[in-house]
Structure formats: C-alpha cells, structure tokens
Amino acid sequence: TTMHNSTNDNKSTSKKKVVAVVGGGLVGALNACYFAKRGFQVEVFESREDIRQAKIVKGRSINLALSHRGRQALKQVGMEDTIVSKGIPMHSRMIHSLNGTQSPIPYGKKGQYILSVDRANLNKELLSAAETYPNTNLNFAHKLLDWSTETGAMTFVRAEGAKEEIQADLIVGCDGAFSAIRKQFLRQSRFNYSQTYIPHGYLELTMPPINGEFAMKPNYLHIWPRNTFMMIALPNLDKTFTCTLFMPFEEFEKVTTGDQVITFFQKYFPDAIPLIGAEALKRDYFRLPAQAMVSVKCSPYHLGDKCVLMGDAAHAVVPFYGQGMNAGFEDCLVFNEIMDQLNEDFSAVLPEYTRVRVPDDHAIADLAMYNYVEMRAHVNSKLFLFRKYVDNFLHIIMPRTIIPLYTMVTFTRTRYHKAVKRWHWQEKVINQGLLFCAAVSVAGCSYLLVRYPPNMPNIPTEQLWSRLQALKSPF
C-alpha cells in the first residue's frame, strides 16, 4: 500500500507524510479532519466497528455539554454549525430540592448557554466529515496490539484475527482513558502517570416524553443535589431526558430489588418517579451495573517526534465540569495552532505542545474533581448561592476585573491554568471585600446605637422569648 512506501517519498513534500490517528472516537475523528485539512495522508484506526453502521452503539453515553472551547475547535474545520443545530441550548441549571421546588441558577450572562449534544450522533458526524477528505482512510475493527517507539511501526489485529503492520510518520494517540498507545510511554524513563478512581459510579436512566413533549422544562440542565449523591438530567432532540445518577458504589450495592429502587427514589428524588415511570425505573435501574469514573494525568504528551497523546488518552477527567470533550477538542485546536507557528516541524511541534498543554489539562482535571464536591453539596448551601450572586453581580459592574471561574472555563478560551490562578486571586479580593463591608456595617451600627440609643419598650422577658421562637418557626 502507499502507506508503506510513503516514507521513501521526497521528505520536502511534507504533504505526503502519513499521520496515523489511533482511535476513532470524538477527538480522533476531529483530529483526522485537522490533519487531512493540512494535506497529510491520514489513516484512522478504530478498534470497534463503524458506529454509523452498527445496530447498537456500544460505549458510554453520558450526555455531553458542548461549550465555547469545543465550538471553536469545530469551527476551524467547518463543523460548528452542523453540530450546534443538533444541540439543545441550556441557559441555566435547574436545582430540584427535596420538597419539589425548582430554582434556576444561570450559567452566565444573558444569552450565554451550553449545548446538550448526543455523543453517538456527534461521533457519526465527525467520522463522516473526516471521510469527505480524499486523503483520509477510516480503518474500523483494527485493534492496536503494539507499536515501536524506535520505528513508529504499529501492529494491529483485525476482527478475523489477521495481523497487520503499519508504518507512519506521526502517531496520534486518541484512544481514550485506557489508551493502548500510552502503554509504551509508561516504559519510558521520566514519564509521569497517575490515575484515580472516585468512589462514585454512574447509572443512566431515560425520562420519556409526556404526550409527545418534554417531561420537564427543556432548556435547563436539571440537578438534584443530595450531598453524597446527585442526579442530573440533560435534554435530547427526541424529547427524552437522559438522567444520570451519581452515587458511591456502596450505595448502589445496597439497592438490590425493584421495591428498594422505588423506596430510594421516594426518599431522595420523589418528583422524578412519575416522570421516569415506576415500572421503567424498576427495570432500567438493573439493566447495566453502575459504571466507574477515572481521572488520568500524565506528562509529557509526546515521544520524540514520533508520537503524541490527545483527549482522554492524555487527560481523562471526571465529568463534573462538562469539559472532558471540550478539553479534548481544544487539544486538536492548540496542536493546530502550534503547527502553524512552527511550520509543521514535528520535532519542534511535539515538545511545544507538551509544554503548552500539560499545565492546562492538569488544571481542568483538578477543577473537575473540585466541582465533583461542589455540585453534590454546595449548591444546597445558602452561602454558596450568595457567593454566586456576588460573583455575578461584580462581573456585571466590573466585567473586565471580576470574571467568575465558570465563565472563564466555559465561555472563553482563557488557558485553564490561568483561569484557576485568576480565580484564586479574585476569591481573595472578594472575600477581603466582603469582610471589609461586614466590618464597616457592624462599626456603623454600633456607632449609631451608642449615639442614638433606641427607646426600648418595656416587654417582659417571657414575651420576648415567645416572639423570638415565633420568628424561628418555619411556617
């Protein structure tokens, strides 16, 4: 095949270089478009069958929230409008409290929203887009067995068991959190790697339409925060909601019968039972076991001028900031920008990509972990909501000085690690400001009380006490 001979071609026509993208998921398929657009010969290798032909799409389906970073990456290859037209805008979170009241917390300023997109459909669209380039081949049912760091030769095993050896000028590992490409990195000296499983698992349930319409308000990301666990729901184009229950594995293990499921939901998510349907709930809860969630960090992202990692292969994150896909898509965009700056010279581009991208991906992995605590617990606290309002209010009156962390992460391309730095600085400033205001208020009130003592009516102590008690009663 041309792939084998291409390395003998005249090197100056770098346009004939072969780029092997391992993994045909979201990041792999988008990357194929980027490299093909630059004129490389692109070979995509995916271990699964073609999901566009598959009867049932296997794999995760946590709904995805597409935001600014991902959109910018799609825009570069002319895919933004296609994808956005099939997404559902979510302008606010909708918090469901235990007593059934719902309160919205907007994501940003008026007009700012994130998009609920369907993972399988997005993947199909990106694969089809990659295929429109004449210099791209999609190879399905190719599972990577091994590859050589010296020569860049890869060995794949086909569905029928046959082995195939492929040679490429650049290998791009987009093969997910359990990357086979990354295995070779682990054998290198001074390669840092860590993976952390959180104690929570997730389980997906479907909330069907009611009389052909959404069962809840559609333009929201619905959240049921319950301290140690929570449920979220995102809208789909077919008028269903995908509900995801996040809960410690030990809690999942306690629920073993259909009746226990209903009891559990009656206790924590009573308003969801009629919407999902008691019978469906009993059935679907046991359809699949709860899935684990892993956070992966590593560094460097490249090996010589031969291989580079992107997406979950480089940085799997827990799904609590809605940035996993957006960060993976931004990897493609950042790599593309560096290719422009350094003239497609892989020996310069790869180390620069590691230098630029590692601190950002580590920062978003940490933020996702932080948000994992925040979403379950803090959204219930009055102080947290008060701080959200203070941040948003300050952002409105000083849009350049105070930018909420969520806004920087979701609605800008501010580098992740810079957003975190700036956030820590802002927290310090705002907290000092609030303390100062509180101190001034107390001093002011004390001064007024001393200067103008109020005329206190004579009220017997018992009466005062009963009045105070009345104030505390919830009704």
TrEMBL record:
Gene3D superfamilies: FAD/NAD(P)-binding domain (3.50.50.60). Coiled coil: none annotated. GO terms for molecular function: FAD binding; kynurenine 3-monooxygenase activity. It is found in: Mitochondrion outer membrane. It holds the Pfam family FAD_binding_3. Its main location: mitochondrion. Keywords: FAD, Flavoprotein, Membrane, Mitochondrion, Mitochondrion outer membrane, Monooxygenase, NADP, Oxidoreductase, Pyridine nucleotide biosynthesis, Transmembrane, Transmembrane helix. Pathway: Cofactor biosynthesis; NAD(+) biosynthesis; quinolinate from L-kynurenine: step 1/3. It is a multi-pass membrane protein. It comes from the Eukaryota. Residues 19-333 form the FAD-binding domain. GO terms for cellular component: mitochondrial outer membrane. InterPro entries: FAD-bd, FAD/NAD-bd_sf, Kynurenine_monooxygenase. GO terms for biological process: 'de novo' NAD+ biosynthetic process from L-tryptophan; anthranilate metabolic process; kynurenine metabolic process; L-tryptophan catabolic process; quinolinate biosynthetic process. Its cofactor is FAD. The chain crosses the membrane at residues 393-412, 433-450. Catalyzes the hydroxylation of L-kynurenine (L-Kyn) to form 3-hydroxy-L-kynurenine (L-3OHKyn). Required for synthesis of quinolinic acid, a neurotoxic NMDA receptor antagonist and potential endogenous inhibitor of NMDA receptor signaling in axonal targeting, synaptogenesis and apoptosis during brain development. Quinolinic acid may also affect NMDA receptor signaling in pancreatic beta cells, osteoblasts, myocardial cells, and the gastrointestinal tract. Belongs to the aromatic-ring hydroxylase family. KMO subfamily. PANTHER family: KYNURENINE 3-MONOOXYGENASE (PTHR46028:SF2). This is Kynurenine 3-monooxygenase.
